[in-house]
Design goal:
18 helices; alpha+beta; Topoisomerase II, domain 5; Gyrase A, domain 2; DNA-binding; 764 residues; four-stranded mixed beta sheet; single chain; Topoisomerase, domain 3
Length: 764
């Protein structure tokens, strides 16, 4: 055997480079196309191969880890389990790729249970990564021992790299990509696909910055443009906290969101140490009131302490403010590169266009193969008597196949299909089905050929896919970004408030049960009232980018909202059991989130709120169509702890659905759940005493009342349905016929089987 002498420094250099590349490509750095490291990709593919789909039962994590080790990833079982766990943690990933059952760790740093105790299956986001993997869309390579094959990359319909982010340390390289908002990333992909010459600055108008699963506030927006351009820098995050007044004139600090990847237990421990060391003498107590609804750390202060000053100290001395590194290092064509956000989006677009092309080629081949067989079957049916006779007279299958190919011009594949055809397919009905299938297949072939031959067509499909993700996977921004470019701090924004506590700019509306639409000044407060009689609030600046209120009780939902500075002196609350309460607005201050403002009877709930007029009449109306009109002065003001007074006397199994102020309106619109609209004179609804039954305004006992709307000459309405859809209409008094109060409706909205939830008036 020949001995080759190599200088030791050269051998060490080459071996180190080989080792470094092995770690970079095989372990630590994600592929730009699907945003996954090899172990993550192998876990997801193994679970896909095992059939662990979202609608299927969970299986033990140990079984998944064993499959991954045995077929795809022959490394440590703990390393595989750690990767699996992280993909299931909703405090680490915006859009978890795995659904876990059992103890998968916590934001307090608690470790997950052993793999023999936990269970898992794929999430719907993982299915999007794997969609069309069986259609030859990606390359497969041999596994470590050549016994099977694994995907080199996933098709990745879901832009996982930016949406979930990643972090990894290789040899001489590191990557750190923060998570982002799905809707924003998809919109950026759409715009970049339409206009490849977009600048990073234009992209950043869509992707406002990181969007962490733990929320928080990004402070250095003005620096992000440079960091996202170069692919390197730091994003500065601080916790979301506010100061509350408590009994005795003292203040307390409440922390509701902490920076990404901060250990909550260690954070509280650090604050306690600072108090013990005398560096935060103003703090008297600290409590962790967090639950499954969200984080809530309460820091009680001594009597004369200033909450704002203590909060600033906490930001300076603890992890309530921290930096998260930005380092866009990814594998592009198998090589590690540091790139800007535009390149990350471009590479995802390039990958998806390639997947669409390969999928179309596969589907074209399958459609052509099936069309070929259908044409043969139709040709045989056209010569049915002869075909049957030739088959019956043949000695064996081989002779029958030869007769069919020679006499009728069938190919061997078509002849085989004819011989395999069941007798029931010889009917005229089956022939019609085959002819219809042939027409459909020809249309598919033409479509797939058009897609394969036109990049513009593939771009159109990509855009449709991204629009579908935005529509079907609505994503509310969790992290607030301070100092957005073009942000008008003296202006306002129109927002939509949803029943589940979501608050979105009207330009970002998505499906969901809508309860209100309001214009909120940037520097004002938006207050929400829930069905359980609790009050929640956010700043107008938070509404600017979309937000969500964490409701405290199970089954609780938002029934209405108001802007603090625009509200009148009092609000009127109506309950399902017929109680009505007028509460002074002074009770609605920036206090603890979820503060109760009414005492509800068992089984009762708030159904609607109204800014109380100083004079005039109120309309209280029920599901079965009873409307009671009475003076607003008949409702006495009440404090926070009372349940109010009886507003309307209810009949058996009826309930209140709303309250409105007439405010001098000449007409009233009566709107039923199935979309009927009736205009009646307000004079037909007599003024009666509070606590009586009211009058019936429905034509049929089968109808159910959805809402009542006072009407001027023109009223613009947004109609929200129970299925989460909305539509708009402009109703003009002169065009809508006048009806009797108990007569039939003269107009109807076409809502199919849906039901109307609420009708909201708005200004154009």
């Amino acid at each position: 055997m020949d001995i080759i002498e190599v200088p030791i420094e050269e051998e060490v250099r080459q071996s180190y480079i080989d080792y470094a590349m092995s770690v970079i490509v095989g372990r630590a750095i994600p592929d730009v196309r699907d945003g996954l490291k090899p172990v993550q990709r192998r876990i997801l593919y193994a679970m896909y191969d095992m059939g662990l789909f979202p609608e299927k039962p969970f299986v033990k994590s140990a079984r998944i880890v064993g499959t991954v080790l045995g077929y795809y990833h022959p490394h440590g079982d703990q390393a595989v389990y750690d990767a699996l766990v992280r993909m299931a943690q909703d405090f680490n990933m915006n859009y978890p790729l795995i659904v876990g059952q059992g103890n998968f760790g916590s934001v307090d740093g608690d470790p997950p249970a052993a793999m023999r105790y936990t269970e898992a299956k794929l999430s719907r986001y993982a299915l999007l990564l794997l969609e069309d993997i069986d259609k030859e869309t990606v390359d497969f390579v041999p596994n470590f021992d050549g016994s099977t094959r694994e995907p080199a990359v996933l098709p990745s319909k879901f832009p996982n790299l930016l949406c979930n982010g990643t972090a990894g340390i290789a040899v001489g390289l590191a990557t750190s990509i923060p998570p982002h908002n799905l809707s924003e990333v998809c919109k950026a992909v759409i715009e970049l696909a339409k206009n490849p010459h977009m600048t990073t600055q234009e992209i950043m108008r869509i992707i406002k910055g990181p969007d962490f699963p733990t929320g928080g506030i990004v402070e250095n927006y003005q620096e992000l443009l440079e960091f996202y351009e170069k692919g390197r820098g730091q994003v500065r995050i601080r916790a979301k906290a506010h100061v509350e007044k408590v009994a005795g004139g003292r203040e307390q600090i409440v922390v509701t969101e902490i920076p990404y990847q901060v250990n909550k237990a260690e954070l509280i421990k650090r604050i306690a140490e600072l108090v013990r060391d005398g560096r935060l003498k103003e703090i008297s107590d600290i409590r962790d009131e967090s639950d499954k609804e969200g984080i809530r750390i309460v820091i009680e202060l001594k009597r004369d302490a200033s909450g704002e000053k203590v909060l600033e100290k906490l930001y300076k001395l603890t992890a309530l403010r921290k930096n998260f590194p930005i380092n866009f290092v990814v594998l592009i064509d198998g090589e590690p590169r540091q790139v800007g956000i535009k390149t990350l989006l471009q590479e995802f677009i390039r990958h998806r266009l390639e997947v669409i092309l390969r999928r179309s080629r596969y589907l074209l081949r399958k459609a052509e193969e099936r069309l070929h067989l259908v044409e043969g079957l139709l040709k045989a049916l056209a010569n049915l008597d002869g075909v049957i006779a030739d088959i019956r007279s043949s000695e064996d299958v081989h002779q029958a196949r030869e007769k069919l190919t020679k006499k009728y011009g069938l190919t061997p594949l078509q002849a085989e299909a004819v011989l395999d055809m069941r007798l029931q397919r010889l009917t005229s009905l089956e022939r019609n089905k085959l002819e219809e299938e042939e027409r459909g297949l020809r249309q598919k072939v033409e479509y797939y050929r058009r897609v394969i031959g036109s990049e513009d067509e593939r771009v159109r499909i990509l855009i449709e896919e991204m629009e579908e993700l935005i529509r079907t996977l609505p994503s509310v921004r969790r992290t607030f970004v301070e100092g957005l470019e073009g942000e008008d701090k003296t202006g306002s924004i129109t927002v939509v408030i949803y029943q589940n506590g979501r608050i979105l700019p009207v330009t970002s509306m998505e499906e969901g049960v809508v309860v209100n639409i309001l214009e909120v000044p940037y520097d004002d407060g938006l207050f929400l009232v829930s069905s359980k009689g609790r009050v929640y609030w956010i700043g107008g600046s938070q509404a600017l980018q979309g937000s969500r209120i964490d409701l405290k009780e199970q089954g609780e939902y938002v029934v209405g909202a108001f802007v603090r500075s625009q509200a009148s002196d009092r609000l009127v609350l109506a309950t399902a059991m017929g109680y009505i309460k007028k509460i002074p607005l002074v009770d609605f201050e920036y206090r603890a989130q979820g503060m109760p403002i009414i005492k509800l009877a068992e089984g009762d709930e708030i159904v609607r709120l109204l800014q109380s007029p100083e004079e005039g009449d109120l309309l209280l109306y029920t599901h079965r169509g009873r409307v009671l009109r009475f003076p607003v002065k008949d409702v006495p003001p009440a404090g926070v702890g009372s349940k109010g007074v009886v507003g309307i006397k209810l009949e058996d199994k009826d309930r209140v659905v709303g309250v409105k102020a007439i405010l001098g309106a000449k007409y009233i619109l009566v709107i039923t759940e199935d979309g009927k609209v009736k205009k009646v004179s307000s004079q037909e609804i007599p003024v009666r005493s509070r606590g009586s039954k009211g009058i019936n305004v429905l034509f049929s006992s089968r109808e159910r009342l959805a809402d009542v709307v006072p009407m001027g000459e023109v009223v613009n309405v947004m109609v929200a349905t129970l299925s989460g859809k909305v539509f708009y209409d402009k109703l003009e008094e002169k065009e809508l016929p006048l009806g009797r109060v108990d007569g039939p409706a003269k107009k109807r909205w076409d809502i199919g089987e849906d039901r109307i939830h609420k009708v909201i008036t708005y200004r154009v």
